[in-house]
Amino acid sequence: MGDFIIETKGLTKKYGEQYAVKNVNMHVKKNTIYGLLGRNGAGKTTVMKMLLGIVKPTSGEIRIFGKDIKNNEREILPRIGNLIERPGFYPNLTGTENLKIFAELRGIPQKDAVEKALDLVSLPYKEKKLFGEYSLGMKQRLGIALAIMHDPELLILDEPINGLDPIGIAEMRKLLRDLCDKKGKTIIISSHILSEIEMISDDIGIIDNGVLIEEASISDLKNKNRKSIGFCVSDTNRAAALLEDEFGIRNYGVSSEDKIFVYDFSCDVSTLIKAFVKNDIDVYDAHVYENSLEDYFKKITGGVGIA
User: Fold this and answer.
1) What is the pTM of this model?
2) What is the percent of the chain with per-residue pLDDT over 70, rounded to a whole number?
3) Exposed e or buried b per residue across 34-63, where buried means at least 16 C-beta atoms within 10 angstroms of its C-beta
4) Domains of the chain
């Protein structure tokens, strides 16, 4: 296994004869946000629970911080913060009072741990508002404050934006990006909301029916699915040379021995076809592609879209 904060190999969980997660090979790089995207019931939460030792895998391997979690849980887990199931906060206590109870139960030695955690998530340290009076966004932020109170290197967050209004989503997005970019945290978040995973993540894993069917950087996925003109031609090398020499087009990509994609729309399709044919390059097909990430998700999952 390579140099990743988290790496799984063949990770599988069965309940009876039913696969909840099947043969997942996951790779999470340091100081990035990894978005685990899938519909409800796709296996996201089960994967996260296995990473945290809450659910035991049927088979497969999990390595976190370069070590097998099976034999090193006591060393690995204290370096992780998580928000999987909603914490049991007391509704009749303030956020500060709730966190102080957890800090004492967990034996967190730093006296300012609660204040620092609240400051990071933009919640007041000395406020009389009770947890039961919090908005959903405030409750989510308090949950993340609990997850980061012991200053972990890795955060595993299950659906942290679920149920939030647009303002709450934007605030959560900024919070998580700041934790990654300014505080050096590595973060895994799960979501069924494609647009939010696209906006917040560096890398993405798409899971469907328990199978991780795609893993790539957001930039690579966007490049793969941006608007283009696809040509199926007899000679991609000569076609590429003609694009550069005759039209000054360098924004293109060759995907196979007969397929070339042009991302520069300064010349129309008919002009390029004529130039190819004039230079004895056969054109078998030409098509304008305008796929979105939503279209791509539908394509690889073989089903309907995702929110």
Assistant:
1) 0.79
2) 97
3) bbbbbbeebbbbbbbbbbbbebebeebebb
4) 6-222 (3.40.50.300), 228-289 (3.30.70.100)
